[in-house]
Design a protein that fits this description.
Length: about 500
């Protein structure tokens, strides 16, 4: 069971640091006591393998509540307090929440009219739970089985409707074992918890740390804007982040060479990692090793990894200027379709969406009613190519377009712009023009040249139909609530630029 990774360490490393968050340090014994106490309150309120919403972020209640939900056999359903009330209400209804564990300050009005029981965990409650001794008659943790769901995350599908991804306890064992061993985690290691609980990298951060007896160190919202200060202040040894963090820190002048000597492992994923981003981070963390991870939420956080050589001169050159995503984990299977789509199956692959209607088109052979058979392949929707260093991510299938009868890969155009137009981060999209036609358009961050010079620089390297006809230059690309580049916001910027153009 997922919570067993924590409770085994709680027995072996009782005085070791388990959690550092919001100015509070908890040992394994203390976090064990608090999570066990919250679990007791859930049982007292009638919880029987409930779906438990977690309306808390970067607090002791968030992490102890997550463990408590698992310990009573429940399903942990993270709810991001920053999301609109309408979305949270939809998720609560879809997940069939019985309980919501909330920080004292969180607004739960979106639950009005529902039968969801709200359990508020404030400082006084935490103090009481820390003082409460363990009792011989405390119920044991739920033991269940690998087929039971551990957590349920909601991602936005193509329509924007929240889509539930249930991950079972059995999906996590090989994943955690592989990553704890690969990254040499153990007592004394300090893993940063950079991502929201509503974003699946948080599962790697929490349970590789707790499974190895390491400390989980949680930055404040402000710390995320100055990661170097946070990493040095807390002597962080391991971290996992989206690449956009590099761009934000570098452009703000907060990433000087040699500035993060404590970092042993820097992991990136969630979006493409460019060579320029990787170089800036490698210079700032010269004592560590960098890896680029890839994986859909539906296949339990990550399924591939590529380790960058210490010498940047040995880094591979790819067609789109990104770092390879590397090799598929040895305990998983993959295949590549004729159109380049990557398919995955094995122990980490989920067994279908919370709403079975969402399974349509996502598995081969196609999924019917009920759990998806283990032998079915999950269609990632991502295009890859094979290179000596493993797989290279070429973009989404839906980012392959036709213009003037020619097939165009948007990420190939983006790679060319990074290389030849002296631009920083870039997003390319297709726009409708006032004359009823279509054209490529680009949003570039950093020091991109004006449109005429921009097009001139690309003309020697790209055919005319691949050169954007519109350009938006901004200080930095917009990010969504998960820290990834917000392509929908970029598309709106481009549509506005087309409307302004003469």
């Amino acid at each position: 069971m997922l919570h067993d990774w924590f409770t085994r360490s709680a027995r072996s490393h009782r005085s070791g640091t388990a959690l550092v968050v919001a100015g509070t340090r908890l040992t394994y014994a203390q976090l064990d006591a608090v999570s066990r106490g919250i679990a007791g309150r859930l049982r007292a309120a009638g919880a029987v393998r409930p779906a438990v919403g977690l309306l808390a972020t970067r607090t002791v209640a968030a992490y102890a509540g997550y463990l408590a939900a698992l310990r009573v056999g429940g399903v942990a359903v993270p709810l991001d307090p920053g999301h609109p009330a309408e979305r949270l209400s939809r998720i609560a209804a879809s997940a069939g929440l019985s309980f919501v564990i909330a920080d004292r300050k969180q607004d739960t009005a979106f639950l009005d009219g529902s039968r969801v029981c709200v359990l508020r965990i404030g400082p006084e409650t935490l103090s009481d739970l820390l003082r409460a001794p363990a009792r011989a008659d405390d119920p044991p943790d739920w033991t269940g089985g690998p087929a039971q769901v551990a957590y349920l995350l909601y991602t936005s599908g193509s329509t924007g409707r929240p889509k539930g991804v249930p991950i079972r306890h059995g999906n996590l064992d090989e994943f955690l074992r592989f990553n704890i061993d690969r990254y040499d985690l153990g007592p004394g290691s300090r893993m940063a918890q950079m991502t929201s609980l509503a974003f699946d990298p948080s599962v790697l951060e929490m349970f590789t740390a707790w499974g190895a007896g390491s400390a989980l160190v949680v930055p404040s919202a402000d710390d995320l804007y100055d990661p170097v200060r946070f990493i040095n202040q807390h002597q962080v040894t391991h971290m996992f982040s989206v690449p956009s963090l590099i761009t934000i820190a570098h452009e703000a002048g907060l990433l000087p060479p040699g500035s993060m000597p404590s970092l042993r492992w820097s992991l990136f994923g969630g979006e493409q990692l460019t060579a320029a981003q990787a170089r800036a981070w490698a210079e700032a963390a010269p004592n560590g090793t960098m890896e680029n991870l890839y994986g859909p939420t539906e296949c339990t956080v990550a399924v591939t990894t590529y380790q960058l050589p210490r010498d940047p001169a040995a880094w591979p050159i790819t067609a789109n200027g990104t770092i390879p995503i590397g090799h598929v984990y040895p305990h998983l299977e993959y295949r590549i379709e004729s159109d380049g789509e990557l398919l995955i199956r094995g122990s980490q692959r989920f067994f279908g969406y919370h709403d079975p209607a969402d399974n349509e088109g996502r598995f081969t052979p196609p999924a019917t009613d009920g759990p998806v058979p283990a032998e079915a392949w999950y269609r990632t929707g991502d295009r890859v190519a094979v290179q000596d260093e493993g797989l290279v991510h070429l973009g989404r299938l839906d980012q392959q377009i036709k213009i003037r009868g020619n097939r165009v890969e948007l990420h190939e155009v983006e790679g060319a712009i990074r290389t030849w137009a002296d631009a920083g981060d870039v997003v390319v999209d297709l726009v409708s023009t006032p004359d009823g036609g279509i054209a490529l358009a680009a949003v570039c961050a950093g020091q991109a040249p004006p449109l005429a010079e921009f097009r001139a620089r690309l003309r020697a390297h790209l055919p005319l139909h691949m050169i954007p006809g519109y350009l938006v230059r901004i200080e930095r690309l917009p990010l969504n609530d998960r820290g990834k580049v917000d392509r929908m916001a970029c598309a709106e910027l481009l549509r506005a630029e087309v409307r302004r153009a003469p």
